[in-house]
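Hello forum,

I keep getting stuck at the same step: I have a sequence, I want structure tokens, and every attempt I make locally crashes halfway through. Rather than fight my setup again tonight, could one of you with a working pipeline run this one for me? It's a single chain of 226 residues.
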Amino acid sequence: MKLSDETISVLKNFATINPNIVVRRGFLLKTISEAKNILATAKVAEDFPLEFGIYDLNEFLSVVSMFDEPELQFSEDGNSVKVVGEGNQSVKYFFSDQSILTTPQKDVTMPDTEVEFSINEAQLNQMRKASGALGVTDVVVKKADDNTLSLVVTDIKDATSNSFELNLTNDVKIPSEDFSLVFNISNFKFINGDYKVNISSKLISQFTSGNVQYWVALEKSSKFGG
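Reply #2:
Ran it on my machine without issues. Output:
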């Protein structure tokens, strides 16, 4: 088996969410953060023939990157994989005990969503830059004065906080109720792309881009209605 560049990109992204992973049989990769506030899935081209655990995903990816177009040869006992390069070079890499790894135990069933919008890669990157420049980490999704949707990068605990505001008008669904839905931008661990976003007042959100999906928990300081 060879890993496509797209799959390697997904695994690199997943390593930012959780340094370890359990790969199941089939085409679907999943990971969950240690805090259980980010869950991610990606449908990939490869059909993994067995289930295995990797304790240090970045280390494994570094091994794979040692060779040009390496081939993965899984052992018959399922305990290891040989990463084979050109010229009879290879690395034997042992899998980890899955019981010590953090892995999703069940899928997320999204409740009804009251807020929906689309956001592109450039807009997401601009929000990250604003967070770094202003030294703030809260992203507040709320109704703007002109009834459009506003995403504000700020510090909700500081009334005089400097802030960055992005107004969205395309593919937007806004409820009649007032709302202030808060994310920590450090949880925006998304692979590069444009996203369709669905947010529920039950403090769960879904970000979808192609075959990749993320479910991100909102902060308890969020408010909806009332």
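Residues 142 and 180 are 5 Å apart (CA to CA). If your local run keeps crashing, start a new thread with the error log.
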